TrEMBL record:
<dbReference type="InterPro" id="IPR037522">
    <property type="entry name" value="HD_GYP_dom"/>
</dbReference>
<keyword id="KW-0472">Membrane</keyword>
<feature type="transmembrane region" description="Helical">
    <location>
        <begin position="115"/>
        <end position="135"/>
    </location>
</feature>
<feature type="transmembrane region" description="Helical">
    <location>
        <begin position="187"/>
        <end position="209"/>
    </location>
</feature>
<dbReference type="InterPro" id="IPR006675">
    <property type="entry name" value="HDIG_dom"/>
</dbReference>
<keyword id="KW-0812">Transmembrane</keyword>
<feature type="transmembrane region" description="Helical">
    <location>
        <begin position="147"/>
        <end position="175"/>
    </location>
</feature>
<feature type="domain" description="HD">
    <location>
        <begin position="260"/>
        <end position="382"/>
    </location>
</feature>
<feature type="region of interest" description="Disordered">
    <location>
        <begin position="441"/>
        <end position="460"/>
    </location>
</feature>
<feature type="domain" description="HD-GYP">
    <location>
        <begin position="238"/>
        <end position="433"/>
    </location>
</feature>
<keyword id="KW-1133">Transmembrane helix</keyword>
<dbReference type="GO" id="GO:0016787">
    <property type="term" value="F:hydrolase activity"/>
</dbReference>
<dbReference type="InterPro" id="IPR003607">
    <property type="entry name" value="HD/PDEase_dom"/>
</dbReference>
<keyword id="KW-0378">Hydrolase</keyword>
<protein>
    <submittedName>
        <fullName>HD-GYP domain-containing protein</fullName>
        <ecNumber>3.1.4.-</ecNumber>
    </submittedName>
</protein>
<dbReference type="InterPro" id="IPR052020">
    <property type="entry name" value="Cyclic_di-GMP/3'3'-cGAMP_PDE"/>
</dbReference>
<dbReference type="Pfam" id="PF13487">
    <property type="entry name" value="HD_5"/>
</dbReference>
């Protein structure tokens, strides 16, 4: 990690000074000292729990946020928001300081990171508390006017989130040179939902704290929050493992068949567009994206010399290449999370008229996912520059798909792709040839071969 830019250090210094001004005027601190100490200790304890931050708003990649989230929970905000609801602004701003100043995994330079984090949270809590108390939230937490506390707490959450977003945008702009508008764009909306969930928990803590049951009952709110954070973290770990598995397989194919680098990702993108146009639910759309990305993974079992051959293939060479769907299916058969994607990998070269491979399935015998991937595969193959021919314009590729619909491709899938492209356009990554500035002369297709397939026998 490179050094922090001088202006970023000045920015952090200004944030620290502002935080000190917020906590300094605390004449009523002795009255609230017990609550401040309890909440500060509780938040500091949460910072030490080895649970990845999954509901917070860490800005991975910035010089002061670090390349990844620290080991502690870090953004376990219910305690801070409970403090903003229970305490006056200057006292509430003290709550995050011990936890932020002594947090685990601060990174380098640790003193600057800890000072920044402490100042950022102190300013956010102060703003939230100021907003809450200005709207009369102090009296709304207890008594017959409790429902009004939802409004005041909601305003406090928005103020808290706005402060964090504004401070993050500034540090992104100064530490990484990102433009102000780009820094701000999307940060607030991405942060608001998870912080709002924490805000509800903070309000529950505050209500119980002020109730006859006292602070001990308020602590019980944290248990379900902790469990939900843990479950969410497990889900993200599993999802990350899935992505890593797919990425490794795709990279292996790209290394073996350099001419089609980027093809898998583009087929996944086109498959998603078709799936959404067909109205599939989000879970099936994601699995179909996996199918598109991994459709050619079986090429790992095909000799490299055949994949990179520029001229026509012999019948024996074609038969070898046509084994790649079966190779791919065998490779992914044990990967449970792929679900329907496995059938797409096996059958994406089947044709509606029964002339495809490996099993010559006809019509609806071909799985739906395979019919989607077949269209996406052919579309990207035609619109990408390859070693044996130039890329076709998108309109020409779509016209070819229309011509082959009903015999080779499912007409419904072709129509869905056309409608999706009309709505969103097509912005694919460059091919390997284009990356190196190579635009080879066209090579005539093999006699009798469909126009949308390469000499290697596949759409890619």
């Amino acid at each position: 990690m490179g050094p922090v830019r001088p202006w970023a250090r000045v920015y952090v210094g200004c944030a620290v000074l502002a935080a000190l001004l917020c906590v300094a005027p605390a004449p009523d601190l002795p009255v609230h000292l017990r609550a401040v100490v309890l909440l500060a200790a509780l938040y500091a304890g949460c910072e030490q729990i080895p649970l990845p931050r999954v509901l917070g708003r860490a800005r991975a990649g910035t010089h002061l946020a670090g390349p990844r989230a620290p080991e502690g929970m870090g953004t376990f905000f219910p305690v801070l928001l409970a403090g903003a609801i229970l305490l006056p602004p200057s006292a509430a701003a003290l709550v995050p300081l011990p936890g932020a100043l002594f947090a685990r995994g601060a990174g380098r330079p640790p003193w600057l990171r800890r000072a920044w984090r402490a100042a950022q949270l102190a300013l956010a809590v102060w703003t939230a508390s100021r907003t809450h108390w200005a709207l009369g939230g102090r009296d709304a937490v207890v008594g017959p006017h409790f429902p009004y506390a939802l409004l005041t707490a909601g305003a406090a959450v928005v103020a808290f989130c706005l402060t964090l977003t504004a401070l993050d945008a500034g540090i992104l702009a100064l530490a990484e040179g990102v433009s102000g508008s780009a820094s701000w764009s999307g940060l607030f909306l991405r942060s608001l939902a998870p912080v709002a969930v924490h805000g509800l928990a903070g309000l529950m803590m505050a209500v119980l704290w002020r109730s006859p049951y006292g602070p001990v009952a308020a602590l019980l709110v944290l248990l379900p929050m902790y469990v939900s954070c843990w479950v969410f973290a497990q889900y993200h770990r599993e999802r990350a493992a899935h992505q890593a598995t797919i990425r490794a397989l795709v990279q292996a194919v790209d290394i073996k068949d350099g001419y089609t680098r980027g093809h898998s990702e583009r087929v996944g993108q086109a498959s998603m567009m078709i799936a959404r146009e067909l109205g599939m639910d989000d879970e099936r759309v994601e699995v179909l994206r996996f199918a598109g990305i991994l459709h050619d993974v079986g090429k790992l079992g095909v000799p490299t010399r055949l994949l990179r051959k520029d001229g026509p293939l012999t019948p024996q060479e074609r038969r070898i290449i046509e084994l790649h769907p079966e190779y791919g299916h065998e490779m992914v058969r044990g990967i449970g999370f792929l679900g329907e994607a496995r059938s797409a990998i096996l059958h994406h070269h089947e044709r509606l008229d029964g002339s495809g491979y490996p099993y010559g399935l006809v019509g609806t015998q071909i799985p739906e996912f395979a019919r989607v991937v077949a269209v996406a595969d052919a579309f990207d193959a035609m619109t990408s520059t390859r070693s044996y021919r130039r890329a076709r314009p998108v309109p020409a590729a779509l016209e070819e798909l229309r011509r082959c619909a009903g015999a080779q491709f499912d007409p419904a899938m072709v129509r869905a792709l056309i409608h999706a492209l009309d709505r969103h356009g097509w912005h694919p990554a460059v091919t390997a040839d284009e990356e190196h500035g190579i635009v080879p002369a066209p090579v005539p297709p093999v006699a009798g071969e469909p126009a949308v397939q390469r000499p290697g026998g596949g759409g890619a």
